[in-house]
Amino acid sequence: MNTNLILLVVVGLLCTSASALGDLYVYPQKGQSAEQTDKDKHECYGWAKGKTGFDPMAAPKATTTAPKVEDKKGGAVKGAAAGAVAGKVFGSSSKTTKKSAAAGTLVGGAKQGSDNRKQQQAKKDWEQKEASNYAANRNEYNRAYSACLEGRGYSVK
Description:
The protein is mainly α. It has 5 helices and 2 strands.
């Protein structure tokens, strides 16, 4: 899965918590005009962005590299081959070789399935970490933006 697709997944996760990331309501408490309010919002946007390093207008970017997820197959075949070789080396009959190959099939298939599940979990953990990081950065930006506007005489919720 490429990084752009993963970022879309992360953005999707973020959108599910709209209350944490929703737009702020800004109300002029000192009779500021619409033009003044727009100017103050723009200036506070720049100040909060500079203070926090977060730009809510920019597309989200991953802070770490996504783990590689390859849903591999063939573990059972590889296990069977290894079991057959072990049966030939350590066994004395074709029956031993067949039993070793069967055991190798089970072990190889189980190991491959376990490896695939671990990779999928690592991907989910990474996505959750990225979503959490984005939400924390957005929250920090919102705090700075609100502080700026409140200092200019606006109510921000």
